[in-house]
Amino acid sequence: MKSPFSGIYLLLLIFTLGFLLAFIQVGALTIAFDKLGLSVHSALLLLFSALFGSVINLPLFTIKAVPAAHHPPPPPWQGLLRHRPQEFKGKTIIAINVGGCVIPVAFTLYLLAYHNLNVVQVILAIVIVSIICYQFSRPIPGLGIGMPIFIAPVTAALAALIINPEHSAPLAYISGTLGVLIGADIMRLKSIRAMGVPVASFGGAGTFDGIFLTGIIAAIIA
Could you say which of 36, 38, 118, 167 has the lowest number of CB atoms within 10 Å? Predict the structure, then answer.
């Protein structure tokens, strides 16, 4: 049986791990996580947990779907693993990605408990980011929900800086993470029926998804 691991993707995984480690040592992510109340070691644990958890999808439920009219080929950089294509049989499994959704959402709960944030301000920021994400996200047949990468983090950072400048970093991470999840995933659930994919995962498809990256970028900007 042919292994799902590709040599070039394995090298890419090693390079990514080394790059993330170097990136933290340089200080960019250290500054972001310091704003969020994490040490360097805790930041490394969070990053690597999300990276390895990004290959794990937990099935939630199944919906009826229709075949997509056109299935564009996936980009060559999509995924650190060479996944075997799954046959579409008229149903789509709705799943949740561990690294791209479960871990970031769990971290938002930690931030809510660790920082003294006003509930009304948190809800307002999440609503703003969710609406923007919904407006700019689009279903891509055969692939998933797509959205320009900097729309969510910039929106979250600006909303946090305006609503609560004193705690802008944690508010930006929380609103960015939950805003993408709600606006680009949950609110687009009906669109998934027309994408013709066997599996639709909240938080990724084997890679870091916009949910995780948005929170990090938003915290850096804020």
Answer: 118
* DSSP assignment of 125-142: HHHHHHHHHHHH-EEETT
Q: How is the chain split into domains, by residue range?
A: 7-221
pLDDT band at 94 (very low <50, low <70, confident <90, very high): confident
* Phi and psi torsions of 92, nearest 5°: -120, 125
pLDDT single digits (tens) 99-130: 888 999 999 999 998 888 999 999 999 999 99
Q: Can you tell me whether residue 181 is helix, strand or coil?
A: helix
Amino acid identity, residue 95? A
Contact 193, 85 (CB under 8 A): no
Structure tokens, 91: 């149903």
d(CA 195, CA 67): 7
Cα(76)–Cα(176) distance, rounded to whole angstroms?
27
Enter the pTM of the model.
0.75
Is 64:193 a contact under the CB 8 Å cutoff? yes
